[in-house]
From TrEMBL:
<keyword id="KW-0460">Magnesium</keyword>
<comment type="similarity">
    <text>Belongs to the HAD-like hydrolase superfamily. CbbY/CbbZ/Gph/YieH family.</text>
</comment>
<dbReference type="InterPro" id="IPR023214">
    <property type="entry name" value="HAD_sf"/>
</dbReference>
<dbReference type="InterPro" id="IPR010976">
    <property type="entry name" value="B-phosphoglucomutase_hydrolase"/>
</dbReference>
<keyword id="KW-0413">Isomerase</keyword>
<dbReference type="Pfam" id="PF00702">
    <property type="entry name" value="Hydrolase"/>
</dbReference>
<keyword id="KW-0479">Metal-binding</keyword>
<keyword id="KW-0378">Hydrolase</keyword>
<dbReference type="GO" id="GO:0008801">
    <property type="term" value="F:beta-phosphoglucomutase activity"/>
</dbReference>
<dbReference type="GO" id="GO:0046872">
    <property type="term" value="F:metal ion binding"/>
</dbReference>
<keyword id="KW-0119">Carbohydrate metabolism</keyword>
<dbReference type="InterPro" id="IPR036412">
    <property type="entry name" value="HAD-like_sf"/>
</dbReference>
<dbReference type="InterPro" id="IPR006439">
    <property type="entry name" value="HAD-SF_hydro_IA"/>
</dbReference>
<protein>
    <recommendedName>
        <fullName>Beta-phosphoglucomutase</fullName>
        <ecNumber>5.4.2.6</ecNumber>
    </recommendedName>
</protein>
<dbReference type="InterPro" id="IPR051600">
    <property type="entry name" value="Beta-PGM-like"/>
</dbReference>
<dbReference type="GO" id="GO:0016787">
    <property type="term" value="F:hydrolase activity"/>
</dbReference>
<keyword id="KW-0597">Phosphoprotein</keyword>
């Protein structure tokens, strides 16, 4: 079902559009969720056996959405462990993947993602590709804002890298010591690099943390993508408009 014209992005109100990547541009959100589950199930099962406790696996729906989706991977590790009352040493960004620190687990997750991408490849959502082409033709400034450190290679793989003037990704977050989503810092940096005012900028997200970031940054329009039917959740966290696919915004 198409949105009415009054809800479409238009140049009278907006100059720039900021896209999340996983689950918005590319069909990689499910891949990330599966890798998070593999990581935490391995860790939790090993820990449960050592401590003689019952194993409670990572829930790929609730745990993923509430604690890790859209966040930089070390923050995702930290927040999920906190939800289970588990404390680990922080470690450092160079920790090996077999070290049980926050950074070691985060690096293991990154390894799992890279392996999965190498095996399965990456696909972009057709509606998102069409929408990006439309915005580009109409002169909008475009940026990608993601916690992924694989952003550049993924965009290149799906032949969309040339459409984005600015990329704020996991490497940027680490280098500039930015707060990740749900803090608005990454979106605000992208808008600033584009020379755009937040009130005249659109944010497009599928993660609760990303919607919260867009709302906290006081962006002019925050659009949620509810591919799995969670529109009410995204609206409760600050989305002004929710669609199932970006082809709904193309007439």
């Amino acid at each position: 079902m198409r949105q009415s014209k009054s809800k479409l992005i238009n140049r009278d109100q907006y100059d720039s559009v900021l896209f999340d990547m996983d689950g918005v541009i590319t069909d990689t959100a499910s891949l990330h969720a599966a890798c998070w589950k593999q990581l935490f199930d391995e860790f939790l099962e090993r820990r449960a056996k050592l401590q003689g406790e019952e194993f409670h696996p990572f829930d790929i729906v609730t745990d993923y959405r509430l604690h890790v989706d859209g966040k930089p991977r070390f923050e995702g590790v930290r927040d999920f462990l906190k939800s289970r009352g588990i404390e680990l040493p922080e470690g450092n960004a160079e920790d090996p993947v077999d070290v049980e620190t926050v950074c070691g687990l985060g690096n293991r997750k990154n390894e799992l993602v890279n392996d999965a991408i190498a095996r399965k490849g990456v696909q972009a959502y057709n509606g998102s590709v069409q929408f990006i082409h439309l915005l580009h033709r109409n002169g909008y400034k475009l940026a990608v804002v993601t916690s992924s450190q694989n952003c550049a290679s993924i965009l290149k793989a799906v032949k969309l890298d040339k459409f984005f003037e600015v990329r704020v990704d996991g490497n940027t977050i680490h280098a500039q010591r930015l707060k990740g989503k749900p803090a608005p810092d990454t979106f605000l940096l992208a808008a600033r690099l584009l020379g755009a005012e937040p009130i005249r900028t659109v944010v497009i997200e599928d993660a609760i943390s990303g919607i919260q970031a867009g709302s906290a940054g006081k962006f002019g329009l925050v659009i949620g993508i509810a591919r799995s039917g969670d529109a009410d959740v995204l609206k409760r966290h600050g989305a002004h408009l929710v669609v199932r696919d970006l082809d709904e915004l193309i007439e």
